[in-house]
Amino acid sequence: MSYDCIVIGAGPGGMRAAMQAAQAGLSTALVEKEDLGGTCLNWGCIPTKLFLGATAAGPMLHVQQKLKGAEGHLRFDLAAMQQRKDRFLKGSRTAVGKQLQALGVDVFSGTAAFRGPGTLAVTNAQGTTELAFAQCVVATGSMPAAFPGLEPDGDCVLHSSHVLTLTEAPESMIIVGAGAIGLEMGDFFSRLGTKITIVEGMDRLAPTEDADIADVLTKQLKREGWTIHTGRKVASLRTVNGTAVLTFEDGETLTAAKSLMAAGRKPASAGLQIEAAGGTTVGSGWIKTDGCLRASDTVYAIGDINGRTLLAHAADHQARYAVRHMCGKEQAEYASGPMPACIYGHTEVMRVGTTVAELKAAGKSVEVSVSQLIANPIAQSYGTTHGFVKVLWVEGKMAGIAAVGHGVSHLVAAATIMVAQQWTEKDVHSIIWAHPTLDEALEAAATGPRVVV
Amino acid sequence: MSYDCIVIGAGPGGMRAAMQAAQAGLSTALVEKEDLGGTCLNWGCIPTKLFLGATAAGPMLHVQQKLKGAEGHLRFDLAAMQQRKDRFLKGSRTAVGKQLQALGVDVFSGTAAFRGPGTLAVTNAQGTTELAFAQCVVATGSMPAAFPGLEPDGDCVLHSSHVLTLTEAPESMIIVGAGAIGLEMGDFFSRLGTKITIVEGMDRLAPTEDADIADVLTKQLKREGWTIHTGRKVASLRTVNGTAVLTFEDGETLTAAKSLMAAGRKPASAGLQIEAAGGTTVGSGWIKTDGCLRASDTVYAIGDINGRTLLAHAADHQARYAVRHMCGKEQAEYASGPMPACIYGHTEVMRVGTTVAELKAAGKSVEVSVSQLIANPIAQSYGTTHGFVKVLWVEGKMAGIAAVGHGVSHLVAAATIMVAQQWTEKDVHSIIWAHPTLDEALEAAATGPRVVV
User: Fold this and answer.
1) Judged by CB atoms within 8 Å, which residues 248-287 of A form the interface with B?
2) Which residues of A participate in the annotated binding site for FAD?
3) How many domains does chain A fold into?
4) Record-annotated residues binding FAD (chains A, B) (predicted)?
């Protein structure tokens, strides 16, 4: 069989690429070795958000109890939540399957390996099928990384996919890695009563963010009873007699009922034989791409697998570009524009565009204006007044917006537009900001006094 | 004493006008007969949002209980919430008082009456002071309207300010008027266990919105146990033997422990003698303004009192304009741009710009594109999948955005920018929409198929 376009991987990038290609009139096939929807739908963004949404009332009630406005008790049923999650994911997979069918996309179940610049072998239990393509889009994504001595064993040392199938909340959990996955899973299990210890090798939580963001997170999570170890290297993480045992390089040990290894992801390119199609990989297998997201003349690589930005919406955006480029509708090199990213939970982190550190490293003169959430009536209404919104300015234009605090992920769409359009302060006054909203904290940050940092 | 600028009324419009005038270098006085902050801070937006935020966990938990993911019980303490609210409002009044002081604004406590085109008398218990002004800004706002036979008596027939001081939730409440005030207070008391009956003379809830919005609200509130009467006229609402008794024009009666009269507001212009300064009023006392918000050569009227838009952020926006115009920095007539407005609660309404009905009445050809919240993963995560986002298009450009459902007020800032900039579908693709967010429902609506309505 021969296709104008074959897409490998049915995560958010691959799904989008296949649908866009079919809509553009290309004969299109999609190869997936596991479930439609990929990591995002089945083991990532969606199940974690389902769990966080389902339990959001917990910490909100807890805050009001401290303020004496409410009393009560609350027990979440993880087994029931798992059932609901599984039903929802199954329904979503069915829905996207029908969408693909309606668009005429042929779906092949199996593992893909290149045999040449226009040939792909798809192998499953029934055997191997050879497919020919004019253009191919690799969107195989990434998977939890494993480090020597810290390999998840599925017993007491778990990776994120394991954790998402637990039906009972462990009494305690050690989380290694304080990025989005570690922080979100920690927040969720904390709501179920699990005692959380988080360990991060870098000097702070959320280490890709500026330090002021991490300061608020650290204070808030300590207040919620987390134990936090930053700037400490882990030598090993093992199951010992039914307990997770973490050993730091300095010899100190921690134990917990379960542990989550949430440090790093690795590219899912093993066995793909991208070299056969003229592509190359770097590092642990990230596919090298040119300015137009091409791994070779006939292969694009989009999403996590090219190592640019490990976010579902980045993959989606790259997929749209790749198909337009493939169809000759786009000649310019790929540019993402300012990238939004959130860490979800009761205390959230939101960022669009660059950090102060990145701007300074690029030699820019940066000004920052800040508003504290304590001055915002909506933050007050939820009793969640820790945190801030800050705007980064370069030459009088917005170069980035970042925030930390309850509900700040809700600011991300407006912030993305503002940074993408490089707003000046004058632009902030070009709309009416509804009152009372958390958005007014963004308005206040954008109109506040600026300090050179 | 003589001032460049005197502002009457210390609500959001008057406060903003006084601060902007002082910052522009004008000698400025502010006259207020009650508390700094006006209705918005003391009896309106802010206390209702404090109550809604403090109890938001209630309906969220209720949804999860229905989904079997949580169990528990929850009791809110209204008396404790009132104490917290009073502390917060007092602190906010003190804070704005200090801001005014820091800016050099003289604050006069008393009732204002014009004596001439440049003279104002301020009367309080100590007597009357005459103040001279070059320019005056009237921002006296509005107050609950009273209709014959439906006058709040503070016993069982209450207006919104009465209701905001209750320390015990009544067993039942009849609410007359299904606009923002009635719907928000109903949601709040419903969370405390009050049985809600709402009565609206127009044919639907939220009658200023399109009917499809009201349909979702109606279904959702019925599901939550509300009794809803629309399209029925009320003859009287009275306290009878310690009970609120509502009589419809057709003779049917309803009774409840308390009732809230939330239908309509009237201008707070009685005693102002605007005629002495060359101004005139219309209707029940709304101050007539020209295209530059002027009631006369020396008097501007902004906010509720001019009857244009009864919203705090509209007053704020008009205040900024009036001071710029007064200082000669603005010559063009006032234009608000698309107005955002929200009804808050567990199920929210958000709108920016015009309704379908308004556009059609203006002879426009309107297309609508819609996305249902059930397709959004964040709506799914909260189990709140009823509702939709819709985009109104005129000649290929966004003319309005409206939404109904849990959390849709969070879309208001992005929606305001999109409508203000009259986005086309191409503009929707100019940013990366973060995944997973409720914002994606807005993106989906904006990129969905359009239907002529």
Assistant:
1) none
2) 49, 140-142, 304
3) 3
4) 49, 140-142, 304
Would you call B91 an interface residue with chain A, using a CB distance cutoff of 8 Å?
no
pLDDT digits (tens, 9 = 90+) for B234-290: 999 999 999 999 999 999 999 999 999 999 899 999 999 999 999 999 999 999 999
Does B431 reach chain A within 8 Å, measured CB to CB?
yes
Contact A266, A152 (CB under 8 A): no
Same domain, A278 and A223: no
ipTM above 0.90 for this complex? yes
Selecting from A57, A75, A410 the residue whose C-beta is nearest the C-beta of B57 gives A57
Of B225, B241, B263, the position where a domain reaches its end is: B263
pLDDT at B73: 87
Q: How far is residue B78 CA from its own chain's centroid? A: 23
Of the residues A263, A286, A306, the one at which a domain ends: A263
pLDDT in tens, A382-393: 999 999 999 999
CATH code of the domain containing B308: 3.50.50.60
Q: HEC string of B248-317?
A: ECCCCEEEECEEEECCCEEECCCCCCHHHHCCCEECCCEECCCCCCEEECCEEECHHHHCCCCCHHHHHH
Cβ pairs bridging A and B (under 8 Å): 231
pLDDT of residue A146: 81
Q: Are residues A135 and A275 in the same domain?
A: yes
Instruction: Give pLDDT, residue B142.
Output: 96
Closest chain A residue to B320, measured at CA: A429
Taking the Cβ of residue A451 and every Cβ of chain B, the question of whether any pair is shorter than 8 Å is answered with no
Q: Looking at the domain assignment, is residue A242 inside a domain?
A: yes
Q: Rounded to two decimals, what is the model's pTM?
A: 0.97
DSSP assignment of A365-394: --EEEEEEGGG-HHHHHHT----EEEEEEE
Q: Which among A341, A416, A432 has CB closest to B416?
A: A432
The DSSP H or E segment spanning A157 is strand A157-158
Q: Are residues B300 and B230 in the same domain?
A: no
Do the Cβ atoms of B50 and A381 come within 8 Å? Answer: yes
In a domain, B408, yes or no: yes
